[in-house]
Write a structure and sequence with these properties.
five-stranded mixed sheet; alpha/beta; Transcription Regulator spoIIAA; 30% helix
Length: 116
């Protein structure tokens, strides 16, 4: 694995795996809604900058739920992620029951017409 850290905050580390050509997100701690949304916007910028089409979203090190961020993710962020070039999104859920979203969560909102 050839990882280069692109962004590192107290709640999120974003790295580029140059072998697999994906962006790897490692969430940690108990991020609040604002931190989750800020991290997502950073991801959009880095996805465009690195020209990646794949994201590995690792939630194994987090605790908590973010209802507002979850709603924003489904309605706003995921369509923007697609527009930024992401075509594959793998999600590793947290073993913490309080941090797990329903498996269908981000896909429970209609996809943009361009995703059909």
């Amino acid at each position: 694995m050839a990882l280069r850290i692109l962004s590192d905050t107290p709640t999120l580390t974003i790295s580029h795996d140059y072998v697999e050509n994906w962006l790897q997100l490692d969430w940690h701690g108990s991020p609040n809604d604002e931190e989750v949304m800020a991290g997502a916007l950073t991801l959009l910028d880095l996805l465009r900058q690195e020209r990646c089409t794949k994201v590995l979203n690792d939630n194994t090190h987090i605790h908590g739920l973010w209802a507002d961020a979850a709603r924003w993710g489904g309605e706003v962020f995921f369509p923007q992620l697609y527009d930024a070039g992401c075509r594959y999104f793998a999600w590793i859920h947290s073993p913490s029951a309080t941090a797990s979203f329903p498996p269908s969560w981000p896909f429970s909102t209609p996809r943009p017409a361009s995703c059909s």
